[in-house]
């Protein structure tokens, strides 16, 4: 199904996100024949960053060349490029943007739908939304709001009020690009399309769940944003708890957006408020010397925490979440560890690390991702010696396409189609801020860690009792 004709407006069109993800993503969608038959893309930014149409096209070409999956060449590029224009917008002067949107609508003809993507810093969400309301651009339109959505419960509520004064919830698409990842979406298929796994996907069989997103990346020139945000808001609230929602949810009655999001909201409802004693905050050594970072900054660049989902399925199963900048590896991994069988009847003990690596399901959700089932097997030979073994699913082994749409591409397409399934909902976001309140109120001290390490050990290890926090490698 192709979306209706559209004018897509990107606020923050000269910014980092537009350059890395949105412009390359839109071009990839265009090349794949997934954009509407008739569309236009209008870039926007405050007048001080204004470009003319030709400069914006060059900017887009450079962005696609640097970050896109396909080269900005040939007929496909020329068609896409011709769809681009730029109109600046300031709260007291939205005129240039209005003129470009009108021109784009006239060029398409009929009544194309408008989709606004707010790729601007969170502090600017409110003023852009107001501008859309005051100019009437909001009428009949949809809006994609970037993350983080608020900084705490009060600000998320206030932002929801601002948004809802202009757009009703059915037209609001709060983005978490992790939910657009192919291998996160695949968790629904894995769990609910197979009789094999779902029966064991609960506290009777699973001893713990780990969601790990270590990054080797540092600030990438985003000190201003990051100083205000930190790892907990940037990653845990925004992405990791959303992934937890997909892992922990009950089977929905159907796959429509409301049912799916109802089930996730119930998981968030069941989350126990974060206990600051179950959180480790870290800051990599050298962070305070980065340009734009305060010399006495307390911002955490690492967060590890233990969460509990107080419901029938998960009571007593720790959910261990960990993420941070400048860590040893760049990974995105969910691990479900299984309980030991009731009786140990094998003569040999599996020692140390090997023991931890057996009897688990590992879902690597970095594009393109893989899934491994690890188990203990008898080592060939006369003795009953056990060793870890595994079965692995890789996209490229089973499907011709090892790589579908990138997270942002999938989500922009879904927003054009009006499908909210993979977007976060106001009640879910507010609940996540609500359970975060004790931590935001009394955050533990940040502890230093060496760049390239696994964060402030042994504090992190203490969160995992009994057991041992490790990242399955491959
Ligand atoms: C973003 C965060 O939302 O997600 C970044 O702001 C982080 O700090 C990024 O690096 C990770 O996402 P990806 O696209 O690498 O999966």
TrEMBL record:
All copies of the Glucose-6-phosphate dehydrogenase NAD-binding domain together span 9-186
Q: Report the residue ranges that make up the Glucose-6-phosphate dehydrogenase C-terminal domain in this protein.
A: 188-460
Which transformation does this protein catalyse, written as a reaction?
D-glucose 6-phosphate + NADP(+) = 6-phospho-D-glucono-1,5-lactone + NADPH + H(+)
Q: Which UniProt keywords apply?
A: Carbohydrate metabolism, Glucose metabolism, NADP, Oxidoreductase
Report the InterPro entries cross-referenced here.
G6P_DH, G6P_DH_AS, G6P_DH_C, G6P_DH_NAD-bd, NAD(P)-bd_dom_sf
A Pfam family annotated for this UniProt entry: G6PD_C
Sequence positions that bind substrate: 177, 181, 215, 234, 325
Q: Where is the active site?
A: 239
Q: What is its EC number?
A: 1.1.1.49
Q: Where does NADP(+) bind?
A: 12-19, 147
Metabolic or biological pathway, per its Swiss-Prot or TrEMBL entry: Carbohydrate degradation; pentose phosphate pathway; D-ribulose 5-phosphate from D-glucose 6-phosphate (oxidative stage): step 1/3
- A single GO molecular function term of this UniProt record: glucose-6-phosphate dehydrogenase activity
HAMAP family with a match to the protein in the record: G6PD
Family assignment from sequence similarity: Belongs to the glucose-6-phosphate dehydrogenase family.
Function statement:
Catalyzes the oxidation of glucose 6-phosphate to 6-phosphogluconolactone.
Name it: Glucose-6-phosphate 1-dehydrogenase
Gene name, per UniProt, is zwf
């Amino acid at each position: 199904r192709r979306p209706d004709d559209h004018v897509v407006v990107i606020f923050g069109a000269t910014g980092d996100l537009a350059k890395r993800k949105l412009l390359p993503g839109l071009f990839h969608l265009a090349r794949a024949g997934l954009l509407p038959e008739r569309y236009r893309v209008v870039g926007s930014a405050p007048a001080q960053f204004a470009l003319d149409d030709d400069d914006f096209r060059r900017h887009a070409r450079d962005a696609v060349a640097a970050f896109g999956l396909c080269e900005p060449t040939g007929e496909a590029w020329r068609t896409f490029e011709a769809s681009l224009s730029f109109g600046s917008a300031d709260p007291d002067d939205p005129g240039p943007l209005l003129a470009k949107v009108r021109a784009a609508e006239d060029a398409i003809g009929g009544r194309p739908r408008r989709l606004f993507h707010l790729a601007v810093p969170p502090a600017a969400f409110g003023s852009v939304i107001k501008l859309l309301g005051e100019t009437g651009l909001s009428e009949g339109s949809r809006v994609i709001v970037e993350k983080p959505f608020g900084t705490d419960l009060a600000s998320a509520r206030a932002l929801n009020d601002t948004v809802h004064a202009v757009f009703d919830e059915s037209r609001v698409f709060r983005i978490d690009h992790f939910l657009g990842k192919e291998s996160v979406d695949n968790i629904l298929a894995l769990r609910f399309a197979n009789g094999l796994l779902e029966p064991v996907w609960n506290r009777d069989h699973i001893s713990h769940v780990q969601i790990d997103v270590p990054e080797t990346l540092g600030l990438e020139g985003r000190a201003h944003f990051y100083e205000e945000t930190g790892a907990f808001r940037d990653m845990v609230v925004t992405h990791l708890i959303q992934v937890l929602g997909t892992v922990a949810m009950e089977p929905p009655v159907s796959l429509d957006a409301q049912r799916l999001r109802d089930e996730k909201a119930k998981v968030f409802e069941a989350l126990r408020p974060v206990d600051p004693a179950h959180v480790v905050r870290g800051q990599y050594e050298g962070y305070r010397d980065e340009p734009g970072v305060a010399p006495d900054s307390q911002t955490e660049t690492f967060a590890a925490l233990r969460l509990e989902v107080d419901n029938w399925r998960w009571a007593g199963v720790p959910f261990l979440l960990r993420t941070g900048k400048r860590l040893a590896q760049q990974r995105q991994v969910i691990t479900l560890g299984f309980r030991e069988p009731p009786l140990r009847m094998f003569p040999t003990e599996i020692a140390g690390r090997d023991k931890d690596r057996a009897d688990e399901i590992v879902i690597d959700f970095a594009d393109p991702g893989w899934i491994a089932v690890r188990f203990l097997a008898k080592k060939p030979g006369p003795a009953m010696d056990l060793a870890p073994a595994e079965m692995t699913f890789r996209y490229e082994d089973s499907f011709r396409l090892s790589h579908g749409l990138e997270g942002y591409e999938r989500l922009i397409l879904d927003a054009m189609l009006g499908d909210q399934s993979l977007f976060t909902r106001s009640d879910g976001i507010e609940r996540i801020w609500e359970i975060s309140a004790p931590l935001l109120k009394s955050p533990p001290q940040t502890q230093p860690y060496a760049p390239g390490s696994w964060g402030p050990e042994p504090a992190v290890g203490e969160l995992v009792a009994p057991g041992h926090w490790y990242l399955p490698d491959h």
